[in-house]
Design goal:
Elements lengths: L1 H11 L2 H10 L1 H20 L6 H13 L10 H29 L9 H5 L4 H21 L5 H21 L2 H18 L2 H21 L1 H8 L9 H8 L1 H11 L6 H4 L3 H15 L3 H10 L6 H26 L5 H16 L6 H16 L3
Helix pairs in contact: 2-3, 3-4, 3-17, 4-19, 5-7, 7-8, 7-9, 7-18, 7-19, 9-10, 9-18, 10-11, 15-16, 15-17, 17-18, 18-19
Length: 368
């Protein structure tokens, strides 16, 4: 379908329109420069062949974003996305019910089997759900021409999404969803109602933590009864502690910080760090065999392409924010994007690049 859209774009969109789009949308021009810079630095490092996997994925937002040129409005795109995510949630719930019926258990706190039960990987399904949550609240508060019953459906969908995220214990998605709800309450309601609604939300979340042990296991590692300190539990159970420790160790003040190590080479350096610094043999083998990347998009760009590339990427996000006058949609989407990129290299994954491109499209068109 995407290939068809791109091919049709050649017949619908004129070259002059693309040039005008690049001139008008400074954010897109910045991302284009960012893309060129990391390719040049990869050539200088002699890593272009090894880094090709990333450039192929980064081409996705470069190609998809200009497809919005012929669109006068994207409200139909927003609604279609919301409906598609709702269907994904229904399919995932069905799979969960079948899994519980077959196994007799409901434990999603550890293991990768949850990604086989859900329609997609938990982190990316959660990311998709939070984008739909933002759009649902945005349409609820901004589509005043629609009937009240239709608007309430968007609010109902937002609540369903939050419940679903709590059921599957998607940590960063839950944190993002709570941020979105709190910001929505802050921006939409009068002060006398803010505290009441916020208190109700916090009470609801606390209650859900009590009835769903998967949440306390995922967030606080409560299943580890041998370690008293929460910090020690995180060190022992959370892979990102070791990953980020090694990532920070790779930051130095020579030329590698200017042009980076290259994306493939950065992963090789991390694997060497795991092999040399992790003492527990079984844990070391797991890290080395898994070949974990930085699990932080900002660390990844800094280590792989240097601070110039990271500066351009941050400038792209900043420009998306300031051109839209800090609306609910913009702050929420950028906040969610930022939170997800703190714990995942979304630009390393095809689905991540799709969602990054879609978020960029929503932000660019939010002014209209």
């Amino acid at each position: 379908m995407l290939i068809t859209l791109v091919l049709l774009g050649f017949f619908i969109i004129k070259k002059s329109e693309i040039k005008a789009f690049v001139k008008k949308e400074k954010s897109y021009a910045i991302f284009l420069v960012f893309f060129c810079v990391i390719i040049v630095f990869s050539l200088i490092n002699g890593e272009i062949k090894n880094d090709l996997f990333l450039f192929q994925k980064l081409a996705i937002p470069l190609i998809l974003i200009p497809l919005i040129i012929p669109l006068k409005t994207i409200i139909h795109v927003k609604i279609t996305f919301i409906v598609a995510v709702f269907l994904a949630i229904l399919i995932s719930i069905y799979n969960i019910v079948v899994f519980i019926n077959d196994t007799g258990e409901f434990s999603f706190s550890q293991g990768n089997f949850i990604n086989e039960v859900l329609i997609s990987e938990r982190l990316y399904l959660g990311f998709t759900c939070v984008i739909s949550l933002v759009l649902s609240l945005h349409l609820y508060s901004n589509t005043l021409k629609l009937k009240k019953g239709v608007r309430l459906l968007f609010l109902f969908n937002a609540v369903i999404i939050l419940l679903f995220l709590l059921v599957i214990a998607a940590r960063i998605a839950i944190i993002s969803a709570v941020f979105v709800f709190i910001y929505f309450i802050y921006s939409q309601y009068k002060s006398r109602y803010k505290f009441i609604i916020a208190f109700g939300l916090i009470f609801f979340l606390a209650l859900f933590f009590l009835v769903n042990p998967n949440l306390s296991k995922r967030f606080f590692h409560s299943n580890d009864t041998y370690t008293d300190s929460l910090f020690e539990k995180i060190k022992k159970r959370e892979p990102r502690y070791e990953i980020w420790n090694c990532s920070l160790g790779l930051i130095d003040y020579n030329k590698e910080l200017i042009i980076g190590h290259g994306y493939y080479n950065t992963k090789e350096l991390l694997v060497n760090c795991y092999a040399n610094n992790i003492k527990d043999k079984a844990r070391k083998e797991w890290f080395v065999n898994s070949r974990f990347n930085t699990h932080n998009q900002f660390f990844d760009i800094l280590l792989s392409s240097g601070f110039i590339a990271l500066g351009l990427f941050l400038l792209y996000l900043y420009d998306l924010m300031i051109i839209n006058r800090f609306s609910f949609l913009v702050i929420s989407l950028l906040g969610v994007l930022f939170l997800v990129m703190l714990v995942e290299n979304i630009l390393h994954r095809q689905v991540g690049c799709y969602l990054f491109a879609f978020s960029s499209i929503l932000l660019l068109k939010s002014r209209e």
